[in-house]
Amino acid sequence: MNESGAVQTVDATVIGAGQAGLSAAYFLRRAGLLPGADFVVLDHSPGPGGAWQYRWPTLTYGKAHGVHELPGMPLEDGDPDRPSAEVVGGYFARYEEAFGLRVRRPVDVTAVREDAAGRLRVESSAGTWSTRVLLNATGTWDRPFLPYYPGQETFLGRQLHTAGYRGAAEFAGKHVVVVGGGTSAVQLLMELAEVARTTWVTRRPPVFRSVPFNEEWGRSAVARVDERVRQGLPPQSVVSVTGLAATEAVRDAQARGILRREPMFDRITPHGVAWADGRELEADVILWATGFRAALDHLAPLRLREPGGGIRMDGTRVVKDPRVHLLGYGPSASTIGANRAGRAAVREVRRLLDGTRDDAREPVALAAPAG
Ligand SMILES: Cc1cc2nc3c(=O)[nH]c(=O)nc-3n(C[C@H](O)[C@H](O)[C@H](O)COP(=O)(O)OP(=O)(O)OC[C@H]3O[C@@H](n4cnc5c(N)ncnc54)[C@H](O)[C@@H]3O)c2cc1C
To answer: Where in the chain is the domain with CATH 3.50.50.60?
Structure first.
């Protein structure tokens, strides 16, 4: 039921209005589906921007890895010194407006389940939708991953995940142990080292890649992640496939000793961390830069998971249930991948909605307004 008490019936439901969800909404509109009537976009965040609205303020647009534009509208005035949260949030807001995507927010989708009529029932904080197909684009930000180490609960200092990091200033003069081998760990170490003492610990020695990332390399990295999700295994982190970018700033930090890495500690003590060889280190803060997992709990009633722990995929389509597409999952977990996933999913979804007639609906010409 929606707020008026009735179950609202739509052809397609998009959950999540980040890069992947907005791309899907754009292609649904272009395929002739009407926003708000034929399809609905639901998002539980307070404003536009997907997960970008939560990124720490010191992650300026210039420091982001490379944010690909959404389909059909350029990102102009991307001031490199402004926080990514503002730049991307503003761009997404203009995008939603320009294409009339009518994103419903804040709407928290709590469960998706099969209904009696062979449709999918989308239950949310704002009521229920009955949909023929589901384009799930819920990203990872809502599921920060924190590994467990013995003694973790005894630590008297502060523990936080990157999702809760708001800048280095509050750590001035402290000793911060940064855990994790990804891009976020490297960026935060470089920021923190300006005001704090830092120690970097990772499970495996980090691999820095000095060769510039080119298209071919990107394609082969995506293919490796794709191979895993085709087998129903959980997706790997992107860095485990691509390595870390050895930018000029990174090389400078290496030269200054900021990126000297220690092996992973074995336990946490009330005052710091300790290794099996008896070495102990006192610390005020443990910052877990240990990544995120796909936020898919609301899909649990559909039982999509394989024994391997992942969801077996064919492109964006879930093999167990072809009505369900996952966008921004596995190989499409990048801004460019999310765009492509939106396009590919809508192409398949149209076939499902229109039978085999690809041209059953007239494509709609969409143009972004100037400026
Ligand atoms: C720190 C950091 C920096 C990154 N930098 C880059 C970069 O520079 N370039 C790049 O290509 N990629 C980058 N990435 C990866 C990036 O997150 C993705 O590329 C892309 O932005 C993700 O888009 P998305 O649409 O899949 O997910 P998100 O942007 O996370 O959007 C998901 C949306 O779904 C909503 N949602 C989730 N669960 C529910 C629910 N149950 N009900 C309703 N709504 C829900 C959320 O509120 C959110 O708005 C970065 C990731 C991180 C963590």
So the answer is: 2-142+293-354, 152-207+243-288
